[in-house]
Amino acid sequence: MKTQVGIVGAGPSGLLLARMLQLRGIESIIIEGRSRAYIEARIRAGVMEHWVAALIDEVGLGERMRREGLVHDGLEISFAGQRRRIDLKGLTGKSIMVYGQQEFVKDFVAARLDDGLPIHFEAGDVSIHDVDGDSPKIRFTDKDGAPQRIECDFIGGCDGFHGICRPSIPAAKLTTFEKVYPFAWLGILAEAAPSSDELIYSNHDNGFALHSMRSPELTRLYLQVSPDEDINDWPDDRIWQELQTRLTQDGGWRLNEGPVQQKSITPMRSFVCETMRHGCLFLAGDSAHIVPPTGAKGMNLAAADVRVLAGALTDFYKSDSAAGLDHYADKCLGRIWKAERFSWWMTQMLHLSPEADGFDRRIQLAELDYITSSEAGAKSLAENYVGLPFD
Ligand code: RFL
Ligand code: PHB
User: Fold this and answer.
1) At 68, phi and psi to the nearest 5?
2) What is the pLDDT of residues 112-155, one digit of tens each?
């Protein structure tokens, strides 16, 4: 097989990159390790920055999102027995879109297959070769076990944190930074109507909790737990009891409960690989960086990388200019580090660290009081949450 851009991974990064290239007349082939059913059922992000929703419209795939997605003008922060609202729209003029990542994935996969363009699902033994030269290759076995080879000009490394692209770069060429947090998130998807119109981020003496949603019938909820927690120690009753305690601390109401469709534990880390290019290989999204989910930034950052990469590849093919490709990492890293900062800051402000003492706890409560009562404080949170402007 031959193409212009070989893309490893059919997550938000790979699918958006392929779609943007397609609309600019640039060919690509996507290789995905999992099945279509698996990636369409994988529950992850829920919050899109305003410009990501606009980009999805721009690439012609916003129809279902506009119909089923939920536009939120604010969010709530609960702490010290009270709940305060951050007026995102009033402070920034912008709203966020609550639309499940798996719905985004379904829309992009369907559009690509309808257009007769390739996604090779269930690819095994994926490896990349000759990225130092000008004819890189991707090797894999297809879902019938037959060996395959793709020759291309460039490779999009869109295969997430545990993919093969980043580890294919020689260790001596990699510059990475990492922080692992002493807690994790236990997330559930429940068949219950959301208990509030907006997201509630809660800081409680028992730990952090988050109330989010996917539709008028589905609630998405998270609890801070320890990273070595066994999910079997969390029967549904215990989860609901803890969610009720942490999320309704302002009193006088209860969360709607319902059957739990899905539950899982996610560790929390911050990670940046500043080497986003190696020869013809370009990393985008979670393959290059991870943020703890407290700031709702991961998928948005993936889209921001892809926006830059698609522009640089277009300049290369249509204007014969490699300048955009040469400056790809520099252009992305400013936004990446700002999102890393915001996600780290939200995480430390809202979670209970096992290492925190009484002083740390009081500083945390003072910060929550400041951020939710000062216009300057709230505005700083709001402009980061809805998505910082591009330069
Ligand atoms: P993905 O989504 O991990 O996709 C990578 C794809 O590559 C495939 N793959 C391979 N394919 C072929 N060969 C290999 N060797 C391969 N290895 C892997 C994988 O199967 C997969 O399909 O990365 P991408 O595209 O960069 O997208 C990143 C986002 O998925 C991620 O940042 C977000 O989900 C993070 N995130 C959130 N981001 C937001 O912007 N807003 C949110 O509200 C939000 N909430 C969250 C989140 C992530 C969470 N978890 C579970 C980590 C909430 C949670 C709980
Ligand atoms: C979600 O709805 O899954 C979600 C919302 C906000 C976050 C993280 C996850 O910060």
Assistant:
1) -105, -20
2) 999 999 999 999 999 999 999 889 999 999 999 999 999 999 99
- Please report the atom of ligand 2 found closest to the CA of residue 44: 3
Quote the CA–CA distance of 291 and 205 in Å, as a whole number.
Answer: 24
Supply the pLDDT for residue 336. 98
0.70 surpassed by pTM: yes
What CA–CA distance (Å, rounded) separates 324 from 308? 8
Catalytic hit among 297, 328, 331, 351: 297
Give 367: exposed, middle or buried? Use CB within 10 Å, 0-12, 13-18, 19+: middle
Lay out the sheet containing 281-283: strands in order across. 119-120, 28-31, 5-8, 154-157, 281-283, 277-278
> Known catalytic residue: 289?
no
Cα(355) to centroid(ligand 1), Å: 29
Q: Which amino acid is at 229?
A: E
391 has pLDDT over 80:
no
Burial class of residue 342 in the structure, from the number of CB atoms within 10 Å of its CB (0-12 exposed, 13-18 middle, 19+ buried): buried
Q: DSSP 3-state assignment of 138?
A: strand
Q: How far is the CA of 43 from the centre of ligand 1 (A)?
A: 9
User: Is it the case that residue 19 has pLDDT exceeding 90?
Assistant: yes
Atom 6 of ligand 2, nearest CA residue: 296
Q: What spacing in Å lies between the alpha carbon of 335 and ligand 1's midpoint? A: 18
Contacts of 53 (CB under 8 A, 6+ apart): 62, 65, 69, 97, 99
Q: Is 199's C-beta closer than 6 angstroms to any atom of ligand 1? A: no
Q: Which residues line ligand 2 (CB under 6 A)?
A: 45-47, 199, 212, 220, 293-294, 296
Side-chain half-sphere CA neighbours of 244 within 13 A: 13
> Domains of the chain (ranges plus CATH)?
5-72+96-178+269-345 (3.50.50.60), 181-268+352-386 (3.30.9.10)
**What pLDDT was estimated at residue 134?**
85
The ligand minimizing its distance to the Cα of 13 is 1
293 is catalytic: yes
- 329-369 pLDDT tens trace: 999 999 999 999 999 999 999 999 999 999 999 999 999 99
